[in-house]
C-alpha cells in the first residue's frame, strides 16, 4: 500500500501572511504552531536545500531539559513537555524514547557544578538526580568506573525523562502536520535578502523571485547572520563545525544516553542498532559542513576509556553540522530592530532538543508581535544590557 | 558442490580455516570469500531484516552481503569476507548485519603514523602505478597506497584476454621497479579512508600478521600530501530484479576476479547478464576458466561486435535486448535458475521469459568511478550518458583523478592518463603552485575520460521487471534489505530529494556505504520522477571510505596516554607520603595527606591547624606562571588586568583580576614585576593554558603594535609555599643570611636569592592570611628543596597540606577561587573585588561592567554562610532560597560555592553567591541540596583574622 504524501510540492505564491526562512525543525515547528495556535495558515516555509537537511539531519537526537538557569529551564522544559505529547499531536511514530540522560562528572569541579545543576533543576520542577559511580554503573553496565581512569567517573547527573527521538521523523511529522493545515513547504528556494519599506520588512528576495510577506521569521541557524548582514545588522554569532558519527549496527549494549563534557564524548544507541556519538566543536569558524579528523580521534580516545567494549566496533560514517554559537551559549529569540522581522538562532548545540519549544514560542512571538514570556530573556538586547544566560556549563559541549 | 578450484592450491600454501564450525581447505593469503566459494559455501550471511540467505556478491570493499565475524586473532566483530585474508587457523562466523561486541576481550591494538609527501597516489592499478612512477621520476616524494595486499589493481579482471595480457606484461616490471624508486613509499593493505581540508589524508593500514607478536594490527596513517592523485578505480554495480539477492547472484567482474586472481570458480553453470561489453568479456573469461556458460543476456539491442564474436567462437550465443527478470531458489533459497526475457530499454519485459538452470548468475550493470574520496572535500560529479556513469566534474583543490576513477576503463589508456596526471601533480607540488582551478586540470587532459577505440557504448539499466515482479523481493540495497518497493513508498510519501529517499529507505547507510546501491537508487528515482540523473544526483559521501575499527581511531592514546598527567617535581614524595590526588586541569595535585586511620575530614583538620598554629607546606608548583616581557609589557597588562600594573615598581607584587570581554572574572593571581620590561604573572592552576591563549589572542590579533612576548614557564619552576607563624623560623634555617623580617622583606615584595645554594625566587604573598614565603626554585631542584623545607620544618611539626586544605584556609579568609566562586557569570564587583577594578584606565571587559544588567544593584554577591547547626557542612552546589521549599518552582537566590568544617572557627562555614547578599548579612536563608533544606545565616565572607594581623607573622 502506497502511503499518502507527507507534504506537497508547491510553487511559491506571490505573497504570504508569514514567511519562515529555513525548513529545519525549528522552521517547520514554527509554521505548524502559527497555523495551529494562531490561525495564521497563509504561511510559507522557504528552504534553500532539502527539507530538514541542515542541523536537523546532523544532530545526535538527544532531548533533555536539565539546564542550569531559570530562563533555560523554562524554555527547555517547555520543549520537553511538548515532546512528551508530540507523537499524539503529530500522529506519527517519532521513536521518542525517554531512556534518560546522564551527564558524567570527572573532577571535583565537575561534581560541584553538577550538584549545583541538579539542585537547580529540582527547584525548577525538572526531574534530576545525582548518581554516585556505582549507580552510574547500574544504569550503564558497560561503563568503566575504575578510579584508575585518567579522568575517573566521580558521579553523574541523571534526568530520567530525557532521551532521544528520530530527527527525520520529527521533521517529517511537523512537515506533514503543517502541510495538512495549509502551510506551503517550498524546497530549493533560497532567501537572498529582504524587501523593506523604511524599517519595516515587507517580504523576501529569493532564488525563485520576490515573495511578499506580512511577517518574516528567520530560522536559518548560522546563516541568519548572513541574511541580517544584508540589513546591516550584525549578530553576535560564531558558526563552528560540530561533528558526529555512527558505528555499524551493534547488538544492544547501552539503553540510555551518556554525555561527558570533560572528556568530550556523548553516546546513545538508536533503535536501528548504530552507536551514535558526538564530540566537542571544532575550534575554527566556518560554514563548511566538515570538521577535522583529530576531533574524532580525541572523542574516540575518550569513548574507549569509558566504554572499553567499543574498541570492537567500527567508525562507519562521520559528518559535520554547523552550530551557531552566541556569546552566552544561549539562543537569540524575538523581535529585531526591523518591524515584522523575527529571529530564532544561536542555539549552538542545543537546537534539536528545543525543537517543539522553539517553534511554539517563536510562533507566539510572531503572531502577537511581542516576545512570548519564555522568550523574553532571550532577546537580542541582552548583549547590550548584559543580562546574559550563560549556559556554557550545561551545554554539555564545550564551546 | 557448486564452486570449485580451477587452479589447485600450490604446495606449501595449504591452510585450513573454520567457518561456522566447518573446516575448509584454503589457500593461505586468499580472501575468505574465495575459500568459501571454492568450497561451495554459498550462503555466507543473512539479511539484516528479512533473514533471507545471502552469499558473496563482490570482490572487495563493495561487498554488501558477505559480512562475517572473526574469532581467531586478530578478532574482528564485523568484516567483509572479501577482505579477510585467510591463514591456517582462521576462524570466522556468519553475521546477520549486527555485530556483537565481545565484552572482556582485548581488541587488536591500533597505532598512528604521520607522514608527508609531495604526491600521494591512491590505488595501485595501471593508472596508479603509472602516476606514482611518473611522479617519483619527476623528483617528488611519493606515497602509493593500495587497499590490496599487492599492487596490481583491477586489471586482472574485466578486460578482454589480449588487453589483459598486454596490461600484465606492462605492469609486472613496473611493480617490481616501484621498489627501486628511492623516494617512493609503497603502502599495501592500506586504504585511504578520508580526504580532509588542506591536503590532510587519513588511511588505514591492516597488519593482521602483527597479531601474533602483539604488535599494532591497525595503523592509522595521517598523511599531508602536496597533491593527491585518486586512481581508485571503480565499483561495479548490480541490476535490480526479483530475487537478485539469492546466494549465487554475483557481480560479473567479481566472478571473473575470483577465477583470474584466485583460481576459484564461483559456479559451474553460469548465466551472464549485463548491459555493456565488459560483461560479455566476463562471460568469455568465465568460460576460459572452465565454467559452462548457460546463457548470456545483454540488455542492448546491439552489443559490441568484438566480445560477441569472441563468444561465438566458443559456441556461445548472446541474447540481445534481453535481461534477467527473476531468479528461482533451490534448497536453502540459493540460486537454482534465472529467467531471461526480452526487455525494452527501460528493462520492462516485452515477451515471455525462459528459465535457465544455473548455480551462478554473473550480473553487471556498469561501473561507477570511485570518487567518494574527492567528494569528502567538496568534489562534484556529473552524469555522462556515453559512459552510463557519474564522472568526476569538479575536483577539490590539489586532487586529480586518473584511470577508471576518471571514467577511463581501457588499461592502456588508464596508464597513459596516470602517467600524465602523476607527472603534472609532481611538477605542481614541487613548484608549490596551487591547482584550485578545475579548468586547468581538464586542460592537460588529466580528468577527461578516455574511451577505448572500437568502443560500443554501455547502456544505463537499473531494473528488470515483468508484470509479475514482486518489488518487495527486488533488492536495491542488499545490506539494508531495502527494495524497489521501498523506493516507491518513499516517493509515494512525497519524497523527491534523494537525501530524503535515502533516509526513508535507509539505502546507502550500511557499512558498505551503498557502493552497489547508490547509483542504481538514483537511476530508479530518476525514472520514477521522470528527472535526469543530474537532477536527482546522489547522496553526499561521508568519510570514512571503509569502516575504521575504533581501536585504530583511538590509537595508543588510551589509559595514561589519553591525556598525559602533569606531575610536579615533588610528586613522588607525595605518593610516598600516601597523598590522595585530584585532577586539576592536567595536573595531579595532592588533595590531602591522610595519616593512618584518617579520613579526609580528619586529615584536613590536622593539616589546616598546623598551618594556622605552626607551619604547613603546600606544593604550589602547578600555579600557572606566565612571563610577559617586552617594551610594552606594562601597557599590555594594564589592558588585560582590571587594575594597573604599569605603576607597579620592580621588585614588587600585586594581586590582579582579569575579565572576559563580558566583564566576567576570567582569572586572578599575583603578578610580579621583575624589571621595567618583565613581569611574571601567576594564574589559577587549571587555567594557565587558557590565560596564555587569551594573552596571545589579544597580543597577536588586537594589539599587534605592542611589543610584548608571552611565555608559559609554569613547569620551569617548582613552588613551595611555606605557610604559618613558624614559617620565618623554617626559612631562617634554609636561608640564614637573608633578612626575613617583616620590615626587611615586606609583604608583596619578592627577592631573587639562593636557598641552600640553589637559585630561588621568594615571594612574600599569602593565600591563607598567614605569614607565607613562596619559594620558587628551578624545577630540577624542586624535590631536593621540598625535602630540605620538610627537614628544616621538622622541629616545628611542619605539615604538608593539599588542595583541600588550601581551599579551606583561603575560604576562612574570604578569598575566592576561580571556578568555585566564579563560573563565567560573576564580575569582580560581585565577589568583592571592586577595589581591584580601575575606574580610570580602559581594560578588557570594562565597557561590559557598566552595562545596565552588570551594574545592577541586586546581582548575586559573595557572602559568608554560617549553618545554624555548626556541625553540619552544607553541600557545595546547594541552592540558596528564602523559605523552606514547598511546591516547585522555587525562586533561587544563589548557591553555595565552597563549604568546610573550620578548625580555626570550630564549626562549619561556607561561601556562596546570593542575590543582593552584601545587604543581607544576618538574614536567614536555606541551603537546599536534594531533599534537605538547611537554615544558614548570611555573614561577611571574611571569617578569620579580619584585621589581617597575621600575614607578617
UniProtKB/TrEMBL annotation, chain A:
Stated name of the protein: Sarcosine oxidase subunit beta
Boundaries of every Rhodanese domain copy: 19-62
NCBIfam families linked: soxB
GO terms under cellular component: cytoplasm
Signal sequence bounds: none
Cross-referenced PROSITE patterns: RHODANESE_3 (PS50206)
Family that this chain belongs to: Belongs to the SoxB family.
SUPFAM superfamilies, A to Z: FAD-linked reductases, C-terminal domain (SSF54373), FAD/NAD(P)-binding domain (SSF51905)
InterPro entries: FAD-dep_OxRdtase, FAD/NAD-bd_sf, Rhodanese-like_dom, SoxB
GO biological process: tetrahydrofolate metabolic process
Co-factor(s): FMN; FAD
GO molecular function, one term: nucleotide binding
TrEMBL record, chain B:
UniProt keywords, alphabetically: Oxidoreductase
Domain SoxA A3: 472-555
Keyword Oxidoreductase: yes
Domain called Aminomethyltransferase C-terminal: residue spans: 861-945
Oxidoreductase among keywords: yes
Record domain GCVT N-terminal: where: 570-841
UniProt xrefs under Gene3D superfamilies: 2Fe-2S iron-sulphur cluster binding domain, sarcosine oxidase, alpha subunit, N-terminal domain, BFD-like [2Fe-2S]-binding domain, FAD/NAD(P)-binding domain, Probable tRNA modification gtpase trme, domain 1
InterPro entries: 2Fe-2S-bd_N, BFD-like_2Fe2S-bd_dom_sf, FAD/NAD-bd_sf, FAD/NAD-binding_dom, GcvT/YgfZ/DmdA, GcvT/YgfZ_C, GcvT_C, GCVT_N
Any one Gene Ontology molecular-function term assigned to this protein's record: oxidoreductase activity
Residues annotated as domain FAD/NAD(P)-binding: 118-378
Protein family according to the UniProt entry: Belongs to the GcvT family.
Protein name: FAD-dependent oxidoreductase
Source organism: Halostreptopolyspora alba
